[in-house]
Amino acid sequence: MIQKRPLEEGIHRELGQELSYSSYLCLDKVLTAQQPLSDPAHHDEMLFIIQHQTAELWFKLIIHELRAALKSLAADTPGLCEKNLARVRQVQRQLFEQWGVLSTLTPAEYAEFRHVLGRASGFQSPQYRLLEFLLGNKNRDLLSLFQHAPEVAETLQQALEQRSLYDEFLAFLARRGHAIPDIVLERDFSEPYAENEQVRASLLKIYQQPDDHWTEYALCERLIDVEESFQLWRFRHMKTVERIIGYKPGTGGSSGVGFLKQALELTFFPELWTVRSEIGLQPA
């Protein structure tokens, strides 16, 4: 027989006049934000909406943590930055794994409601664009997507022109006595970062002498964690799209899978990758 568990005497039951779980989390708004447009509502459109709303919430947390990481580096508190980046990596794991949920949507099922999206596309996500700007993938041309939303455009403009996470990291290295050239430290941050030989040499020194530069060494690896996780997310995104729509164009007008494959060639922290080919090599 299934036993009934009695409520403990101390459990609060009169919740109408005070803060409750639902009111704290604004569940009345969160759980009514799923509005399928197919008519009659297709069963799988709910999955599609929740998948993308959940991703946007995770993006919001990553942006929150990256902004804190930037402030920590600027304030020369690298330990706090490491904490922020460790959390970012765990959020990225959630984003990666949830592609598995969307991949349960078959091509035939998606085709039944894809038309209701019109030209809406994840490429238009302002939070995703902000996330890439904070990490260093700067592209001024993308601001034109958000001309219809002045506040969003202003936020993206500010992120475009400010130091990215990598720029702030390199400034931190310079203050720690590493040879980071002025051309890197004083560049136009709205432009994409260009790989620099002196930066690569400084990072090689850190990796060759980790005991002497442990703080910097640890931060290098946290940055690699973040980029590697981001690239894995990009790859899983591309394969999920390929699985569901094949090589059809994206709803937003892109080439779809082909466009997503191009993103796999982008890198945020180039010298942290190229230096790996030299670590451990004996000098000639």
Structural description of this entry:
The protein has 13 helices and no strands. It is mainly α and 284 residues long. It is globular, with a radius of gyration of 23 Å. The chain starts with 20 loop residues before the first helix and ends in a 10-residue tail after the last helix. 20% of the residues are buried. The mean pLDDT is 95.
Largest sheet: number of strands, sense, barrel closure = none
From the alpha carbons, calculate the radius of gyration and give it in angstroms.
Answer: 23 Å
Q: What class, by secondary structure content?
A: mainly alpha
Q: What's the overall geometry?
A: globular
**Average pLDDT, all residues:** 95
Keywords:
284 residues; 13 helices; mainly alpha; single chain; globular
Summarize the structure.
The protein is mostly helical and 284 residues long. Helices cover 57% and strands 0% of the residues. The protein has helices at residues 21-24, 27-30, 45-74, 78-102, 107-111, 126-135, 150-161, 165-175, 182-185, 197-208, 214-245, 257-263, 270-274.
